[in-house]
Amino acid sequence: MKLHNISFNNLRRRKGKMIFLVLGLFIGVATIVTLLSITESMSRDIEDRLDQFGANIVMVPKSDNLSLSYGGISVGGVSYESVDFAESSIGRIREIENSKNLGAVVPKVLGSAEVNGRKVLLMGTNFNDELSLKTWWQFQGNVPGEYELMVGSEAAETLGLKIGDQLSMKGHDFKVASVLMATGGAEDGVIIANMAEAQQVLGKEGRVSMVEISAFCRGCPISDMVLQIAAKFPEAKVTALKQAVMSKMQSIEMFKSFSYGIAVLVVFIGSLLVFITMMGSVNERTREIGIFRAIGFRRGHVMQIILLEAMVVGLVGGLVGFLGGNGVAWLVMPMVIKDGAFAGINMTLGGISLLLAVALSLLASLYPALKASRLDPSEALRAL
Amino acid sequence: MATATVKKCEHLFEVRNLGKDYQSGESTVQAIRNMDFHIDDGEFVSIMGQSGSGKSTLLSIMGGLNHPSRGQMLVDSLDLYELSSEQRADFRSEYIGIIFQSFQLITYLTVLENIKMPMAITGITAKKQDEMARSVLEKVGMADKADRLPDQLSGGEQERVAIARAIVNHPPILLADEPTGNLDSETSEEIMKLLQDLNREGQTIIMVTHNPDSCRYSGRTIEVKDGNCYIQ
């Protein structure tokens, strides 16, 4: 028989008591974990939703003064040659340090073309990427295929184009597959074609005029990413669309501050619950501590027995609480946010939960154990 | 054990001008007024008195559990209360076996584990602990109930386990506080005979009781009345 046998036998044979203590810790830890997990999942969900609202970084060439523009980029008019990038170099964007924060990278070629004797801005892009970036775009017709076009609402009206119409640009025949509904943006006045075909029409094979980038704000300041991209493309002007980024960040920060505020409150209440439970449990053992002391146990021996028990209860309570909290978060998340997904088990939070549970359990047992072990054994026993 | 002042003393226990006061509100109650007596090695002494006479307080002071207000308590020439609280814990572990008034067994430990409990802090090997515990269990006639929990035992059986736990470390002194207080007369007699047998084997026993019948098993009785003692 060693001191730890006394601790383990107490936990093993007084299961009701042990379950009650673990339950106290479970409720405290699980509440904290549930709240933090839901907060994290909600933050991610909000970030993901916000990230769908278009590009937040734009890369354009350091260019001269041009007469036609799209989204802040100047393109060559009749008398200017626009500066551009080699399409093959765009892949370098994905080599930046924070590449994991990169979402869609959508290169575009821009230039003026003639349709029915009128000058029009032609944009070449990858339709799938473009539509994933511009989730608010609505259009009639289909996503354009080979040698098919999407026409902006203003351009369609001015040029008298409708779905199914044929038109020719620099000897290439195209069919209008869809008409974009008015967005109020620059795309209203453009004709959009597939990248390779637009490059052919504009005589810019293998060239790119600008790149729109969607970066996920989570865990990375956009300004860092802008600098990282600029370092890869010294010939480019990389800018963050500050307004979009700031509003994204602000919404997330506000939500995070709110949830952390709630979490602090929950940690406090949970800790208090654990503290009271553990203290009550040790206080109940005053008589038993008296027996140990009367038999010849030193204070250190008594403390060893009680603190070992507290540690085991803390570990079990922390672990069960962490798993339970994650389970509840997983169950509750779809109810909190429509189509919201649980962000996954956070091991750091797991480690903190265990530490918190053990520390609370030890701390809560320490004072009453110390007090009881300092009592005169006869006073503790009240029998002698 | 740590050193303490060694007084000249020929007896195992020597109580000198011992007194104990308790504070009750603003008044002081003298539980023990002034006691002087001694107990020799191998004796079986009854300390007899009515409830509230101070006999249990005396026993707790003799066991190093309760600091006296005045006087000396010498055990084997050591002044017990010159030792620190932790040194007195060591003293209890080495010198004293206590049989408590209401058994005071640990409810979540089996009979065998309860008996082994005092050895948990001694460094005796697990095998030796088992041998010693089973040997005393045999002695008190409880060998067949080693794996029972205390609440599965009768009062008499619990008392036997309490005795076994008190003697397992072979302490020189056995203190018993009303060992038959919670037992019927037949079981009381069995327990008293057991204590008598232990004494015959050389165990020093100091027993507190209010029952004159129990005193006939001891060699000598010290009567305690109103905080004073009268040696018979």
Note down, in words, how this protein is organized:
The complex is a heterodimer of chains A (384) and B (232). Chain A is an alpha+beta fold and 384 residues long. Chain A has helices spanning 3-13, 15-51, 127-133, 153-159, 195-202, 222-232, 242-283, 286-295, 299-336, 347-374, 377-381; strands at 57-61, 68-70, 73-75, 85-86, 102-115, 118-125, 139-141, 148-151, 166-169, 172-180, 190-194, 207-208, 210-215, 236-240. In chain A, strand 5 and strand 6 form a beta hairpin. In chain A, helix 2 (15-51) packs antiparallel against helix 7. The longest helix of chain A is centred in the C-terminal third of the chain and has 42 residues, at 242-283. The model of chain A is unreliable at 76-81 (pLDDT under 50). The longest helix of chain B has 16 residues, at 185-200. Chain B is globular and about 50 Å long. In chain B, strands 6-7-8-3-9-10 form a six-stranded mixed β-sheet, with helices on both faces. Chain B has helices spanning 55-62, 85-95, 111-116, 126-139, 155-167, 185-200, 212-215; strands at residues 13-24, 27-39, 44-48, 70-75, 78-79, 96-99, 173-177, 204-209, 220-225, 228-231. By secondary structure, chain B is an alpha/beta fold. Chain B is 31% helix and 27% strand. The chains are: A alpha+beta (384), B alpha/beta (232).
